Amino acid sequence: MPMAEESRAPSVWVRPERARRGRPALGRTQIVDAALELLDAEGLDGLSMRRLGTRLNAGATSVYWHVANKDELLELALDRVMAEVAVPSGDGWRAAATGYARSLRAMIHRHPWTVTLFGGRPMIGPNATRVLDEVLAAFGAAGFTGFDLEYAWSAVVDYVIGAAGSEASWQRAQPGTSAAQWVENLGPYLDRLDGERPGLASHIREIWMKETGDVLEGRFAFGLACVLDGLEARRPPAR
């Protein structure tokens, strides 16, 4: 079982690793690899310490040697996938912000279980801190400082998490179903809307019916451009 004092640690990254003597052959990397396989296949509900031990053909003691509880395991898994997020450099703050936003969105699509973890625990692992340091440098180069710097990058990341999370949720809940098929399946309900809310019924038929990957991309690009336009209007003038 996990040790009580370890379970109270604010983050796996601040809890000292246990002494090497007596350490089981199973390593932290193997544990995180197996956890990611479960998370990507089945989401957060599919991951448990018991199932992880079974997948690794190891007892719970071997897993608890490296992580005190499931929260610490999720911290490690989240930091691992943050390694996939890139922040371009060299073409100005807006290009860096756009590249970062698209990279983060792509990561969320590959690992939709991450959405509800953002903000839940401190992201202070090596990959997350690398990304944050690069993002802050990009927005700092735009002239943002202090709290404005925090607000600026947060506006972008919050938009991406919301947009990509919604996209990933739809794909997970409606696998293999196109928007046109979904609208067609509304059947009598949509017919009733014609009389009750004709404007909405028309919009569903004219817009939702035609939603494709290109439309989703256009919606994301439009929203991101609006966020960046707003930040451009607020950033300090160049000295």
From TrEMBL:
Keywords: DNA-binding, Repressor, Transcription, Transcription regulation. Pfam families: TetR_C_1 (PF02909), TetR_N (PF00440). Gene3D superfamilies: Homeodomain-like (1.10.10.60), Tetracycline Repressor, domain 2 (1.10.357.10). InterPro entries: DNA-bd_HTH_TetR-type_CS, Homeodomain-like_sf, HTH-type_TetR-like_transc_reg, HTH_TetR, Repressor_TetR_C, Tet_transcr_reg_TetR, Tet_transcr_reg_TetR-rel_C_sf. It comes from the Bacteria. The keyword Ribonucleoprotein does not apply. Residues 48-67 bind DNA. GO terms for biological process: negative regulation of DNA-templated transcription; response to antibiotic. PROSITE patterns: HTH_TETR_1, HTH_TETR_2. GO terms for molecular function: DNA-binding transcription factor activity; transcription cis-regulatory region binding. Residues 25-85 form the HTH tetR-type domain. Coiled coil: none annotated. PANTHER family: HTH-TYPE TRANSCRIPTIONAL REGULATOR RUTR, TRANSCRIPTIONAL REGULATORY PROTEIN. This is AcrR family transcriptional regulator. It comes from Actinomadura coerulea. The lineage of its organism: Bacteria, Bacillati, Actinomycetota, Actinomycetes, Streptosporangiales.
